[in-house]
Amino acid sequence: DIKLFMKNISVKAGFSDNLDVAQAAKDVLGKIWQKNIKLVLFFCSPKYDQEKIHKLLKEALKEIPFMGCTVPGESPDSPMAGGIIMDGVKNKGIAAMSIASGADKIQVVTKLIQGVDRSSWIGAAGKALEEAVSTFRLDLKNIDPKKYCGLTLFDNSLAIGPGAVVGDVIEHYSVIAPDLLFTGIGAASGMHGAFPTPGTVHASDGFSKNAIAIALLKCEVPFVVEMAANFEQTGKVLHITKMGEGVIKEFDGRPAADVYAEALGVPVEDLGTQSAPNSQLLLLNPLGYMIKGRAFLRTGLWAEKGKGLATLFPVEPARELYLMKNVEIVEHT
Known about the structure:
It is built from eight helices and 21 strands. The chain is of the alpha+beta class. Strands 14, 15, 16, 17, 18, 19, 20 and 21 form an eight-stranded antiparallel β-sheet that branches. A hairpin with a 2-residue loop joins β17 and β18 (294-298). 38% of the residues are buried.
């Protein structure tokens, strides 16, 4: 009975914008503290001393699993939001939540992953998941998706750009544990042009920039993982007819930047260049497509000299991309 299960689940959230890291940690922990905490999840300002944040949480939580990351809300050139709490969006401070359960209805293991190149990332990620799974004495190939799920926090600089490995890690997980669904979010400390500057990721066993944290959750309470995006496709469709490495060269046989600018109704110069990207315009007007009612975005970066459109994401030739429009995400969800 779900009502009986839910009586054993308790969630508390808290926020502090105290500039003193020790006081901020004390404040937020006091607000989320409760009996039988199984997981603490937090998001904080990159201006806090991250080593001190980790030490304070580790000392207070002891054996309680936790994970968290920095968010770049304070960066004046960042299009990304800060922490969202009941009072609204906060651009600095620390927001945290605790999930508690009696009778072990929820169990959690967190792990920090670090690597150097693609192969070492894949190896480290596989080892971390195997160690987490061994805690529950599970077979990677035989995980019940109704009882287990994965969370991931990752440095955004590992998700986009030349050093991107997050996609490789998640793809590797889908191979070695095909029934285990992972969902997550990226960390950053700000934006440098079109790219996020490295953020700090925390897990119970450590913290670092250029890192990924995972949590494996066993949950006896029925749960649903839902994807929501504040974009949906318009009627404007662009067909990729020529691709290069990280560049869409042509839409419908014409220079991609020209076609995209026409779809937006702006001069191609407004798309910006690599040295001076117009990130705000392109982030608000991404390309993408819908699968089963879910939006998958393929955001452009800038116009290349050869009139191509630079992009961070892999896009297959002959793919139809739609110009996407912004919608209300809360209502959509």
